[in-house]
Amino acid sequence: MFKNYIRIAWRNLIKRKVFTTINILGLAIGFGSSILIYLFLTHHLSFDKFHENSDRIYRMVTESHQDQIGYNASVPPAFAKVFREEYHYAEKVAKMVNWDEVLVKVEAQGQNQPYKLGVAFVEPDFFDIMTFPLMDAAGNRSLEEPNTAYITEKMAVKLFGTVNALGKTFLYDNKETIEVIGILQNVPKTSLVTEGLFISFKTLEKFNEFVSEETWGGISSDLQCFALLHPNQNIADIENMLLELPKKHRPKSKNKHVYKLQPLADIHFNSKYGGVDPALMWVFGVIGLFLILIACINFINISTAQAFYRSKEIGVRKVLGSFRHHLFWQFLSETFVISLFAIGLGILLAVLFLPSFNNLFELELSMNNLWNVQFFAFLSAVLVLVSFLSGSYPGILMSRIVPVLALKGKLNHNDTGGSTTRKVLVVAQFAISIVLIAATLIISRQIDYAVNTNLGFDRESIVMVDIPTDIEPVKLKSLKDQLSQIGGVNEVSACLDSPGASHSNWGTSIKFHNRPEDEEFSIQAKLADKDYLKTFDIPLVAGRNFFEHDSITEVLVNEKLGEKLGLASSNDLLGKKIEVNSERTTIVGVIANFHDSDFTEDISPVFIAYKPHWFSQIAIKISAQNTKSILDQIGEKWSNTFEGYIFEPHFMDERVAEQYEAEQRYLSLSKVFSGLAILIGCLGLYGLILFFVGQRTKEIGIRKVLGSNVTNILTLFSMDFFKLILIAGVLATPIAWYLMEQWLQGYAYRTQIHWWVFALAIVSIMVITLITISYQTLKVALASPVKSLRTE
Description:
Elements: H1 2-15, H2 17-45, E1 57-65, E2 69-72, H3 79-86, E3 90-108, E4 111-122, H4 126-129, E5 134-137, E6 148-152, H5 153-160, E7 169-172, E8 176-184, E9 197-200, H6 201-205, E10 223-229, H7 235-242, H8 244-249, E11 256-263, H9 264-267, H10 278-307, H11 311-319, H12 324-361, H13 373-399, H14 403-408, H15 418-452, E12 462-466, H16 473-484, E13 489-495, E14 507-512, E15 522-525, H17 532-536, E16 540-543, E17 554-558, H18 559-565, E18 577-580, E19 583-591, E20 606-608, E21 617-622, H19 627-641, E22 649-651, H20 652-658, H21 661-695, H22 697-705, H23 710-744, H24 755-781, H25 785-789
Parallel strand pairs: 4-9, 6-8, 15-20, 17-19
Antiparallel strand pairs: 1-2, 1-10, 1-11, 3-4, 3-7, 3-10, 5-8, 6-9, 7-8, 12-21, 12-22, 13-21, 14-15, 14-18, 16-19, 17-20, 18-19
InterPro entries: ABC3_permease_C, MacB_PCD, Macrolide_Exporter_MacB
Membrane topology: Multi-pass membrane protein
Keywords: Cell membrane, Membrane, Transmembrane, Transmembrane helix
């Protein structure tokens, strides 16, 4: 029986090639998009699942309770030792420090080959907590020894040209010679830890005082602490016990720490601690569902429209003995065959567009990841769901046709499903498209607002260049003088980092003037020389610039500090003493507020002070003309000063744009899927207009005989759809407004949602619809009325 259903279904589909093609293309686009989204979701959902004891691995994190609650994916350096020795909840505890783009040199052919690499400094127990298997090791040696390292196979090939790298050495940051004592399997791409170079933690302790096991005074996001807990531990009980640690080790601090245990499985999806926003996963899933839903709506609309023309076939089948359930399964079989072809084409489309998808999200997804039981289960579920969703309603409608009326030709369109159902489905289709277009416009406006709004400092034609942090002040001043003499260089400043788009934000407590206790908020440190204000064009609103001294005796603060302290005027800050980072100093100037972070956060209180041993970058304002020549000269001066280091300039405006990479991806995603939704909708509209034009061919002929022109006829067809679009717009506008309002809540500084955004989305759908229906409508409208009137 099933074989017969399939054979008849195939014949019917071949007979109606145009409509079959439209249905297959629409479903294929939906399937292809869903496959890419499936790849994306399974990639993210598989993060850190490969560790053997992943259910018992936790990261220690901190909630900082001040005037606001801050979240930091780290704990003070001393926390690990105390948790390991004074508590008995964990089998193993280990610290890790991640540093991006550090200098690594390998001797090759008598020369040192430099690389900029990400490096992780880890304690030996780290590899007992995480599952990163050793392929080869040098005897019983471990990362307990200073100046030793494990590297992955991939990193071994990169640095030494061979996997057999045991005993080989490299130079770290021109400071320490490191020996390779272990080769690890390559780190999976779905890992929290992405570095391929692991150096012993004791190496870092030799030249970085902050990581000392006695330090409770600060938190760096670079330092993370992991623990492998004993089985069956109660996390709430552990966190309650940890409440005593701040009272014991930080009793006087206004910045109250609350230490939490974050499950390994939560790290990738917890946006508070730097993970991916889980809402993004839901958005992807819903978009995939929407695209398939739109394709199913097309199928239902076209199928119910066809029912009128297939009524005699159904009547004959019923007269010859077919029951309703026979007809239902027959039409469901046709849907299944179409869905089967669509899935095959969808897989092909996914293969073709996967490289572009990878480029958009900077991933390395592969179709090889699909050939498993889970994917085939997903594909089968989608196939069955779409077949029933698309085929059930048309099958039920057509199986209910009365054979007598069908054979006498007395059926109308209401007897085969009516126009009401089709109108409702078309409205739903239009509404989804309007929501996607409106969302795209609003996201685009917010990104444009964030990137192009005045940030309170100049970012045009400013080049940021890294420098070694241990540079002597005399050497740094000499370099600044040399750079200032280059034609086209307007200003030069040495600093810890730029005013905004910073890579190294540093918040610290503050005690103002004669107040006995620290304030309830932190202040951001922007360590720099006196040329910082001129280079970034930051206005001084009161007082003067500081003088450079060996110790911090004078500082600048921004207006926001006065606001947080409740002062009436910026002048009230001048001459006041503040204590920051245990150093007491005097406020000599107040600068205008600037955005020290992206637009998701409010402007912070800031102080600027001269502390040259902390400087890590040089900011250079250059002329917009002859940029390459100027950069070449800067690179030459820089390389002569820092022989053996890598010169890598970064433009400030590019840094600002990088802050919104995630939003840019959202925008690209919105554009792509809005386009796909519109494309699928256009296919369905084209199919419907074929039926409507065929149904009203004689009417068009009569209208032309009575004097109607082409414009009148085109308006006649268009107005029916425009009414549906307006209804869809009324329904879609509040939905789109609510969704975008929720999204914009994540921004402290945001654009406004204007009415014209929704109007533009509705008009866009009208224009696209008019273009879609014009071809077939004009074709009939321009035909001879005699030919139209002879049509039966």
